[in-house]
Amino acid sequence: MAVGVTSGYYVAGQTTNSYTTNFIPEIWSGKLQVKFYKSTVLGEITNNDWEGEIKGQGDKINIRTIPTITIRDYTKGLNLTNEVPISTPTTLSIDYGKYFSVVVDDIDKAQSDVALMDMFTNDAAQQMKIAIDSMVLDGVKAAAVAANRGATGGASSANINLGTDAAPFSFSKSTALDCILNMGLALDEQNVPEDGRWVVIPAWAASLIKGSELRQAYLTGDDTSILRNGKLGMIDRFTVYVSNNLPKTADLDSYIMAGTRDAISFASQITDVETLRSTSTFGNIMRGLNVFGYKVVKPEALVNGVIVKA
Q1: Could you tell me whether strands 198-201 and 238-242 are parallel, antiparallel, or unpaired per DSSP bridges?
Q2: What is the pLDDT of residues 180-226, one digit of tens each?
């Protein structure tokens, strides 16, 4: 019986380790990367155009920024003033790493009729999602500009209540829309484009929305299940995502965030996947390394809020 990459079956009497022999790291790594993004919120709310440049942990990626063009008054016969737009690059450091390392015992392999590769990629992607989503969302929970957070948010009005650790926004069926509209207004006052806006809320807040008068607003006919990438639907101009990985305050109130994909740069890559024979047991070790980095590159396009269940 031939042993394929996804089988990992034991063949009686076979002298070589068929799983290690037929294991192809590039294929396995690719499957894991794809499944990671199908289950992560970060893949939906961040820009990740530079991942192909990652070779390992410690890499640095120079990101070019869009310069601001000056608009001047014109009168007839005026000599025009020319400017040379200067793009100031910012650096995204790939300075974080997460890994997994599991042993496939020879006895389990011999008795298993499960496609081990698919089983491992599914679970590894899910666990990577939880670990990396939680870390990045926690890292950007207070990275918005001052006008896009707090009880007196608003670049123009300074009266938008987005909640604070000490006085979170009271979130209920009747106030859910006000909360989301406040976040939209904060972005409006920063002149952030409406296209591509997103908001991430905890599961309990999503449940309140589904039971409120907004219950029809999130039924957008999306063909992607919420179980895959957390997409709930559209409210106002936001695509709403649900995540259990949002950070909490000391009082266990939840942070929420909104913005556009321009706000956060995120790069993640499965850089090493390999198998080797275990020296401490009869089995094969399968392990992989995921390196990543993130940076808030446009804090004016990010809104941070704090909510409490009313």
Answers
A1: parallel
A2: 999 999 999 999 999 999 999 999 999 998 887 665 554 444 444 44
Tell me: do 277 and 305 sit in the same domain.
no
**Strands of the sheet with 264-277, listed across from one edge:** 96-105, 283-296, 264-277
User: The tokens of 55 are what?
Assistant: 């070779």
Please check whether residues 162 and 284 belong to one and the same domain. Answer: no
Euclidean distance between CA atoms 310 and 307, whole angstroms: 9
pLDDT at 110: 65
H or E element, residue 160: none
Residue 225 lies in a domain: yes
Whether residue 73 lies inside any domain: the answer is no
Q: Distance between CA 57 and CA 268 in Å, rounded? A: 10
Same-domain pairing of 62 and 94: yes
Provide the pLDDT for residue 113: 54
Q: Is residue 2 situated within a structural domain?
A: no
What is the distance in angstroms between the CA of the first residue and the CA of the last residue of the chain?
61
Same domain as 235, residue 197: yes
Task: Determine contact, residues 270/235, Cβ cutoff 8 Å.
Answer: no
Tell me the pLDDT tens digit for each residue of 101-148: 888 788 777 666 556 666 777 788 888 889 999 999 999 999 999 999
**Domain extent for 222:** 143-264+298-309
Round to whole Å and give the CA distance between 161 and 306.
Answer: 10
Answer yes or no: do 198 and 151 share one domain. yes
Looking at residue 51, its pLDDT comes to 66
CA-based nearest residue to 306, from 164, 161, 101: 164
Q: Report residue 42 as tokens.
A: 């970060």
Per-residue pLDDT tens digits for 247-275:
999 888 999 999 999 999 998 888 888 88
Is residue 280 domain-shared with residue 164, that is, in the same domain?
no
d(CA 149, CA 304): 5
* Residues 275 and 166 occupy one common structural domain: no
Residue 226 CA to residue 97 CA, distance in Å, equals: 27
Amino acid at 207: S
Classify residue 282: in a domain, yes or no: yes
